[in-house]
């Protein structure tokens, strides 16, 4: 997504805990479970690139296990990153957006937010809550020309899905009406659209990018 926004002409910063960022993108180390690091990251981006007008909240972790085996630590780790961490980022971003009377908030959820998934009660709960966050934000700040929307990807070809095995991926392909996994470009293009002027009257929406897997939910 950082590359897609960069190639579309945006000035882009990307936060990370390890690894790096693409060329032409400002890299900022940040753990969104720490409010101090979130504030420092925004301070750095604002100093080097100017006010943050578009936020894509894409950080996420999983701690999958069945409910009866799920520990408090399994629950808290996922909620603190996927939900509370996103809250920290959006809260910091909204301050400057409100003053500027412009902003685009894009929250990356998941098809399991509405479908559900065994072994992912913590993950699906955290991702479902982002829908309520976007809709409440829309009602609070919509008159300030700030939109808040949710992208809900299905099964996307990434390092995470690559370890699932051919048989499991083939099973998913049977369940997906499109007959294939999605690509990261599919998700990036959805985020680009929601950030564009063409989506200025869309807010509080859930945009599925799942090949039809979750339709009707």
TrEMBL record:
SMART domains (alphabetical): PKS_KR (SM00822)
Residues of the Ketoreductase domain: 1-159
SUPFAM superfamilies (UniProt xref): NAD(P)-binding Rossmann-fold domains
Listed transmembrane segments: none
Organism this protein belongs to: Tessaracoccus lubricantis
Similarity section: Belongs to the short-chain dehydrogenases/reductases (SDR) family.
Identification of the protein by name: 3-oxoacyl-[acyl-carrier-protein] reductase
InterPro entries listed in its UniProt record: KR_dom, NAD(P)-bd_dom_sf, SDR, SDR_fam
Pfam families with a match to the protein in the record: adh_short_C2 (PF13561)
